[in-house]
Predict the 3D structure of the following.
Amino acid sequence: MAATLSPYRRFSLLFARSSIAMPELPEIEVTRRGIAPHVTGRRIVRVDVRAPALRWPIPVALAQVLGDRVIERVERRGKYLLLECDAGWLILHLGMSGSLRVLLGDERHRPAGRHDHVDWVFEHAVLRLRDPRRFGAVLWHPRDAGDVLLHPLLIGLGVEPFSTAFTAALMYQRTRGRSMSVKQALLAGTIVVGVGNIYASESLFRAGIRPTLAAGKVSLPRYEKLAIAVRDILANAIDKGGSTLRDFIGSDGESGYFQMEHAVYDREGQPCRVCATPIRKIVQGQRSTFFCPVCQRR
Ligand SMILES: [Zn+2]
């Protein structure tokens, strides 16, 4: 069993250490909301797989198991999209550069480009996966293998930020005795998912917490502020259509790329929007962190 788990673990570490901007939880949620109305309740006519593998091999039986299946719902867990049908779940991850588009009308007949690796063809539409860097994932979890949330890629994920399970008390309990910085604890994704590098800096600024402070030293009232900040920042990003530093193609073919007005992120040397002190940049775990030394005194 350990041998089958290890590739997934390497995958997680790769993402945790990457310094490249990539689709984050808001972009995935925007994608989910974008594709769901077009594929839910719709029957897959066929699946065209043009690449043998992305991060991992694409299951050779994918076309066979999904052909003539109806997509019952489109859900998200962390940064994974879960397309459920009666036989099981299609698990999709957009990696560093992936995007999903829904092609409707005459657009359905547009030839696939060299980075368009998989098409799910419906009668009325084509769901097309593009992934130039091929770090994404297309996996199949059959229903008889048990609940999809028990999949090795999903079972260790932290709670969802918009679920009732995400509370200040949870963060407080899970960090007691931990010397890891509060920013690293957020980024790790094992307590709460979805707080990527941009959102970690922004949330800590909103909560007035110094990113280098040991997670185990943050008080419960300060975690209350942080939990609220995390939810607000992520909800705002989802509302705005997702934010990333890279071009992001929205699910409807429109550009979903949206540069949020950051309070601290990528603003080194510029005046803090609250107190005008120059924003500082440091590196934590090979990732850039931005903060205001006055508003986030400790
Ligand atoms: Zn400030």
Q: What stands out?
A: The helical segments are 2-17, 25-39, 62-66, 168-175, 182-188, 197-207, 220-239.
